[in-house]
Design a protein that fits this description.
The chain has 159 residues and is α+β, with helices and mostly antiparallel strands. The chain has a single domain, classed as GAF domain (Beta-Lactamase). It has 4 helices and 6 strands, in the order ααβββαβββα. A 6-stranded antiparallel beta sheet has the order 3-2-1-6-5-4, with helices on both faces. The structure holds methionine sulfoxide. The site of methionine sulfoxide has 14 residues, from helix 3 and strand 6.
Length: 159
């Protein structure tokens, strides 16, 4: 049985500030999402995947990410990502083996959090973060990552 890692308190305000600083003057959304995924992946402990699926033509398509190669298309309503996007709410999965319909891109993943990203109030994609540890994501991570996603929405779409 794996246990949640508790020895890394992440400063999400600092992470959001670093993301904004890296995006200063950068016009490409792909570049900003690529750097955001790298920042999250390297700063938050105990991860094996961090990146984006983007809503295009009625489905979620793989965007910039860090980790192993992943499935390229996720239908709305399918898997953790499609569920979060369809419901337009953050989904936290303590043990992916107990989430019916979980899509296993990396067999090592045990827990997952997916946060919707919005443009003009509509879902434009999701931020997906995976961990090989059970129960890696709790209230602190949900709150911090939702705030980070909100800051990223401003960087991506509000200018
Ligand atoms: N596990 C996700 C699929 C994407 S990978 O984790 C990168 C899901 O069930 O939607």
């Amino acid at each position: 049985m794996e246990f949640r890692k508790t020895d890394d308190a992440v400063d999400y305000d600092l992470l959001a500030a670093q993301m904004r600083a890296m995006a200063e003057g950068v016009k490409s959304r792909v570049s900003n999402m690529a750097n955001a995924s790298a920042l999250l992946y390297r700063t938050i402990g105990g991860l094996n995947w961090a990146g984006f699926y983007l809503y295009e033509e009625g489905e979620l398509r793989l965007g910039p990410f860090q980790g192993k190669p992943a499935c390229t298309v996720i239908p709305m309503g399918k898997g953790v990502c499609g569920t979060a996007a369809l419901r337009d709410e953050t989904v936290v999965v303590e043990d992916v083996r107990r989430f019916p319909g979980h899509i296993a891109c990396d067999g090592a993943s045990r827990s997952e959090i997916v946060i919707p990203i919005h443009r003009n109030g509509a879902v434009s994609g999701v931020l997906d973060i995976d961990s090989p540890l059970c129960g890696r994501f709790g209230e602190a991570e949900k709150k911090g990552l939702e705030m980070f996603a909100g800051a990223l929405e401003e960087v991506l779409y509000a200018r």
